[in-house]
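Re: Re: ligand-bound prediction request (bumping)

Still looking for help on this. To restate: I need the protein modeled with flavin-adenine dinucleotide bound, output as structure tokens. Inputs repeated here so nobody has to scroll up.
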Amino acid sequence: MFDIVGSNNIRVIFVFDIVGSMYMTDMITYADTDVVVVGAGSAGLSCAYELSKNPSVQSSSTLLDLFTSTIMSKLLARPNVKLFNAVAVEDLIVKDGRVGGVVTNWALVSMNHDTQSCMDPNVMEAKVVVSSCGHDGPFGATGVKMLKSIGMIDSVPGMKALDMNTAEDAIVRLTREIVPGMIVTGMEVAEIDGAPRMGPTFGAMMISGQKAAHVALKSLGLPNAIDGTYVGGIHPELILAAVDSAEIAEA
Ligand SMILES: Cc1cc2nc3c(=O)[nH]c(=O)nc-3n(C[C@H](O)[C@H](O)[C@H](O)COP(=O)(O)OP(=O)(O)OC[C@H]3O[C@@H](n4cnc5c(N)ncnc54)[C@H](O)[C@@H]3O)c2cc1C
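Reply:
Sorry for the wait, this slipped through. Here it is.
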């Protein structure tokens, strides 16, 4: 390639050539993937990590404390997960009433469409999309807000007032495939269901993410904990969460 030791002649363009072509090659490689996880908070990372245990599943995360940095380091070592930083999902691909992928752009472009000329987006087709976009806000709950804007769900009522005793179980129990092809996990779930917030006790995010991964595996027709076909180590709460009965899930 080129020798940088003792050289004053590093040409920036060489560096850009390598970095730029690696990134763009990844975007093209992952333009057709099994699962796209939108949002790299605690729920999204947990979901991607759980999915990565199945080597036949390829997933991409547009995707950040101690937990997130630890799981991030493990996730980046997985051969079947690709994380795209500085990338935002700004629209969905919908075919015949089923979510079939995402439309992406650089996050800063997505946040400034009103202040500059349009910039062409990129796309990722996926068999399943997992939305883990967090609370409502400038960059929150974007997955469910997109579904509402195109009429696939009726409302996004927002989370209810704090109730620690019911909040975490509700997040896990209500993690599900909300419309064909799209699963919602983490605090974004509270935004669609009007579930209460719980304050800084975010253990439910990890279990919700783990559950979302198994809902995705089920959708892909692969062994999963939802229908009991998975053989492996599963957080015991997930088994409860997989049960439809609210009474059991909240036990
Ligand atoms: C107002 C507020 C209330 C809170 N209340 C609670 C609470 O009740 N309980 C609690 O446990 N914690 C609460 N928290 C703390 C914390 O937000 C959550 O616990 C935890 O971070 C939620 O995890 P998550 O994975 O669902 O979402 P987040 O950690 O918020 O992760 C979502 C990620 O998705 C990314 N993202 C969003 N849209 C897009 C897009 N279109 N494309 C690409 N990426 C996208 C975001 O940038 C972010 O990185 C609160 C935080 C706020 C700001």
